[in-house]
Amino acid sequence: MTVIAVFDQCLDAVVTVLKSLDLDGIPQANISRRETTTSDIGSYPSIQVVPGAPETMDPNAGTNQRDDVVYSILVALYDAPNQDQNAGRSRRLRWREQIARAFRNQRLTGVDEVYRCIVTPQQVFDQGRFIGSNIYMAGLMLRFTSREARGT
Question: What's the sign of the alpha-carbon dihedral 97, 53, 106, 4?
């Protein structure tokens, strides 16, 4: 039997939840899991789900037999607004709102160990990427707290 890492399960579960949200204008095929974000994606709008930061393991968190581990996952939103800073703004802000509401203070369906998610908003608008590449990019960091067995 293959055991799948909790972090791996979290990444897959985030993609599944995002695909279930029916985000206006984002086809399910444009929601993907990657190792790192890239604006060379071919089709807009899109969402990329990537590991966001190293896990954290606070030695003071957890119980006598279980440890809390926090897994960070970046949800990166991409759109090509064709240099019109107002076009699609409300739709893009709505995506952020829907995603935050879906995860904020929730368990993660399909990952039994995860009991909480903290949503940390990232940039609403990456001005440098927009000016340099004419691409809208924004992000939300999802921090999943997992209570895992201590020891092997």
Answer: positive
Q: How far apart are CA 22 and CA 59, in angstroms?
A: 39
As a residue count, the chain comes to 152
CA distance 137 to 126: 6
Assign residue 92 the CATH number of its domain: 3.30.2000.10
pLDDT one-digit tens code per residue, 74-115: 999 998 766 566 778 899 999 999 999 999 999 999 999 999
DSSP state of 135: -
Q: Is residue 1 part of a domain?
A: no
- d(C-alpha 121, C-alpha 67), whole Å: 26
Residue that the structure tokens 């107002």 belong to = 86
Query: Total domain count for the chain?
Result: 1
- CA–CA gap between residue 106 and residue 117 (Å, rounded): 5
